[in-house]
Each structure stands twice: as C-alpha cells, then as structure tokens.
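Quick one: structure for this chain?
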Amino acid sequence: MITSSLHVIIPESGFAAPMTAPSDVHVIIDDRVRTMSAVFAVTRTIDEAHARRPHSAHAHARATRRLLAPLSQHPAVTTLQTLLDRGAPLEAVFGYALRLKPGFVIDSPPGWAPTEWSEQLADFDAQANLAAWWANEHEQGAWMKSLGEAARLWSGVNVQEFLRPYIGETTMRFSFMPNICYPADHEVGVRVGDDITCIAPPRAAWGDSAPWPFDEDPGHVYRSGIGQYVRILMTELLRRHPDQLASAEQVELPVSEMVRASYPTWRDQFFTLFTSGLVAIYLEDHMRATEAKGFTMMESRGHGMALLPAVISVLRRYGEDHAAGKYETFADFLPLFARQVRVAKRIYAL
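Got it. Here's what it folds into:
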C-alpha cells in the first residue's frame, strides 16, 4: 500500500545502545525523508554535486540510484528537478516531505509546490515499491546500523541546556536523521512547526572512498546537528533583534579567503564561525580532548578555519559573562563579536 512507507523508525534494542542519560535529540528514520531522498537520487543534481566536489555516497545511496534509474523521467522526479532548477532550497523540499501525512496527503501545500506533486510522490513510491526495498535484509541492515551509530552519539546530549546561554529558552523539539541516501555531500536542517530536524549524511571521505561510519566521526555528527539547530534558532533570534544585527554587520569578520569564497555574506560567515566554535566547545567539555583537537584541526586545514581558536576563546568569555548576568542572550553580545574575534586573532598570532 502507498501509505505503508510513511512512518518513523526509532532505535530499538539491538540496533542502538540504551540511552545512558536523558537526551532531547530524537534519532529517527523518517520514511517521508527517505521517499524524497529516493526521488532526489535520480535527478541530475546528483551528478552536478559530484562534479563540483568529487565524493562517494554510501553504498545504499548508489544502489538506490541504480534501482530507480528507470524512473528518472517519472513526474515526481521531473517536478523536483524543475523546482531545483528554479532555486528551491533543499530545506524547503524536505520540509514539504515532512508535512506529508499518511496517503501522501498535505494540508495547505506551499504556493511554490505544484498541487499535484504529492500525488506524483505517492505514485513514485508505489511504482518503486520503496517499502520492499527498505525491508530488504541488506538495505535494512545498513539503515539500522546507521541509526544505532547516531543514537549512541546523541545519547545523553541535551541541546536545549547547551544552547540556553546563547539562544535562551526554547520549546523546539530536535530530531536527527542519519541519511545514507541523498544528498550525500551536506546536511539539511528543516523546521516544521515546533520540530527541527537535521537530515545528515555520513562524513564523506576523500575521492571515491566510502564515507565514514557515523560513530567514527562525532565532530561531523555534532557539527551537522548542532549546526542546523543553531542556524534555525539563531536566525529566529536575530530576526527579533534587527538593530543588534545591523550594528554587528558594520564590522567585517576576519575570515580566510577560503571561508569568504564559500560564505560571501556577513551572516553566513558568522553562522560558520559561531557553529564551529560551539561544536568545538561541546567536544572539549563533553567528549575526549582528542575529539576536540581533531575537529579543530580538520576545520582549520580542510575549511580554512585557522580562526577557530580565537572564536572559541570569545565564545568562552561570552559564556562567563552570561553566567555573571551581563548578557541575556547572544543577541546582546552580537555587536561586539567581530571586534572581539579580531582582538583574539591578534593575540593568538603572537
């Protein structure tokens, strides 16, 4: 039946270690996301992404693409490709998927999406028999392995508590989906109502090597999840504080040319620095020191983030000042951020 693929899988005994402490991050596999990933798998966007940055997707992703190649001209696929060609962000595309109800019903579809798309997705699901594909012993094993790996890493992590000094109180619920289909080169963060979901692939290895298992690279998993939660929550916080943002943007951030080329706007540069700094702090405080050092080294060498130690020191100082009652949220500190990072950078350069 068409409706059989629209459900959520959570870790069960045997697939994931028991939670050692309460966590507010729910690790899941959502079949609505898997359906959209399968449609995405047979768009030409996959080849374009590989041409920009050669990488190897998970074996399941590659097998899914081969399986579904005969459906590459299905209306659900051509609709998605048209939307992508028009610049529709993947956040919107996967947000659409997460609004689907059983039977591929969507209430109040967004104006940018064709009204017939949900029916096209239902027909694609039926023709591809995705439920049977995911139930295949080998493919199911790959999904359950990734689910267990991610669940072990998020066990005991309380994102609200960690982000409270920066964001303030939030009622958002957090989910993390380890995605071994597509996109294979970056994570996608989606907010639907009070739920924020991070859809993340395993970290890509160099060239055609297989990607890393989720639990062998905690820095990648936390950067993906915390990064998307922070991006969405901080975007909303800054929307409520336009004056502080406008003041902050007057001071140029001392980022590398590599970062500037990838993130040309002040806001994108800020989110990159802020997210990397917070993840490094989380790793330093809650993981082994080697994990934090490895993450900082990878960010510096692979992403032009030699500035990261300076950013960490500024965020550490903010945390101390927040605890002392000097700031309510990071929005109050934002106008000082770039200046203090510049000062810290000079100190670290001595």
